[in-house]
Amino acid sequence: MAKIETKNLNLWYGSFHALKNINARIEPNRITAIIGPSGCGKSTLLRVFNRMNDLIEGVRMDGEALIDGKNILGPEADLVALRKKVGMVFQRPNPFPLSIYENIVFGQKVHAGRIRKSALDEIVEDSLKDVLLWDELKDRLRESALRLSLEQKQRLCIARLIAVKPDVLLMDEPCSTLDPQATARVEELMRELKSKYTIIIVTHNMQQAARVSDDTGFMLLSEMIEFGETEDIFTKPRDKRTEDYITGRYG
Amino acid sequence: MRNPYRTQKIAFFVLLVATLLIVIPVGMIVVIIVQKGLPAINWEFLSDIPRKGMRAGGIFPAIVGTIYLVGGAIVFALPIGLLAAIYLSEYSKDNLLTRLIKLAIVNLAGVPSVVYGLFGLALFVVFFKFGASILSGSLTLGIMILPVIVTTSREALESVPSSFREVSLSLGASKWQTIRHIVLPNAIPGILTGTILGLGRAAGETAPILFTVAAFYLPRLPDSIFDQVMALPYHLYVISTQVPNVDEKIRYGTAFVLLALVLFMNLVAIVIRYQFRKKKKW
Fold it and tell me: Average per-residue pLDDT in chain B?
């Protein structure tokens, strides 16, 4: 069964039709890249899956978006439960102005109420190990997270997310503020996380999509032009527009 | 031809003069009050009741009264003002009603203080039958400083980056948890600024307490919140205009104490604010 599926998904910001009849199947434990030029609706699509678009006034949606077979668009959807399950990494690393430790346990503080300190310590250690930061930061847990490097901040944000134990990681251009080496390391991390999570990444960077993803969707002007295995999209695109985009003719 | 450097020099000069014009009166007020008031300050002046028809002795009851009134005003205005600010900045939709409420709050800040005094007299003293009491006075002062606290708190809440709210929500926190754990802690310095402004105003105003609490002469401490008290600004008015032959030293001493009290309260708030600012930075 697909982890996430959209059926004739439409979305409007006021009168602007930002997603038109999107149909996509996202499989578990794979990395799916969504590519396309600026303003094509790829971030909007990503933000459907954790309903972050709801924060914008005047948003309307119809069609279906299913996660584990359940429609998440209905009024009955539990947003808190949805967002615990579907976490998001943002374009700009955005740790809270708190210590490294407090950043990671934020989710526990909110979701679990009182927890023994030893359990929290364990969560911090596990999460930081998962993002390969533990060795660097284990002696600096009480320091402000704002003093970290950009790459460390972005990893910390991933750790903060993992600590909530989601199934799906949404990544909205997670490397756009990082240098090439840091980008390569974060991509490596994504490959490692793949075994435990379903990852969807929105990216401007076609090389990144080609390097890191298993499946790719190409969007243009609010439409999903082509969706399939990354290799196929990049080597034998079926649509002329996809070919034009990946060969750099526009975008 | 125009000489840009000359115009620049003139502009700098005008700006400098304007700045000095602000600083000079403030500096002179402080200098005069310290110069004339400081000689009156001694332990007796601070701890004794007024004697000989307020021409001797101390001003202890007025100091205590002002502290009670300011404390009461803050206890009343800070929670209500903060909660209203949270509602306005985080929950309310931008519609006609909200805009009217915001406009009303801004206008409330411009109402002359004597009007608050009359309002307090009518509502708390007469209608609720609290009489002239600490309770009535505190509530009146509280209402007077509410707009300042609401406005500054709202600004502080709104200046917390929306990305923090987004992340918090995206981690599955509810809106209230986001406000409670993320927005509020980061807004505390700004909220304290509003509180400082409110404190200073509440301590210094005479008109709102004139009809609602202030006693002309009451040389003992209050037993309950339904007692009248003396208060520094009113006491200063009384000894300056209503009682003949009060030594200038005592008048300026009283002014000095009022000034010092406000500065001290501000200092406490500033220290707290500094502690928070040091911790939270973005």
Answer: 90
Determine the residue of chain B that is closest to A144 in CA distance.
B279
Decide if B153 touches A, using CB distance below 8 A: no
**Domain span including residue B198:** 60-279
How far does A121 lie from chain B, in Å, by closest CA?
A: 19
A113-127 pLDDT, tens digit each: 777 888 889 999 999
Among chain B residues, CA nearest to A171: B170
Best to test chain B binding among A49, A54, A91, A96 (most B CBs inside 10 Å): A96
User: CATH code at B209?
Assistant: 1.10.3720.10
Tell me how long chain A is.
251
Choose among B237, B252, B251: nearest CA to B32. B252
Task: Using alpha carbons, list the distances in angstroms from residue A29 to A1, A193, B33, B144.
Answer: 12, 9, 75, 60
Residue B78 lies in a domain: yes
Does residue B137 contact residue B157 with C-beta atoms inside 8 Å?
no
Question: Taking the model in full, what pTM does it have?
Answer: 0.83
B55 in a structural domain? no
> How many structural domains is chain B composed of?
1
CA closest to A56 among chain B residues: B166
Residue B42 in domain: no
Q: Which residues contact A74 (CB under 8 A, 6 or more apart)?
A: none
Instruction: Give the per-residue pLDDT at A34.
Output: 93
Give the separation between CA B109 and CA B101, rounded to whole angstroms. 13
Which residues on neighbouring strands pair with residue A216, listed in sequence order? Answer: A33, A228
Provide CB contacts within 8 A for A128, sequence distance 6+.
Answer: A104, A134, A137, A138, A159
What is the interface pTM, i.e. ipTM, of the complex? 0.89
Residue B10 lies in a domain: no
Fold of A4-246: Rossmann fold (3.40.50)
Q: Per-domain residue ranges for chain A? A: 4-246
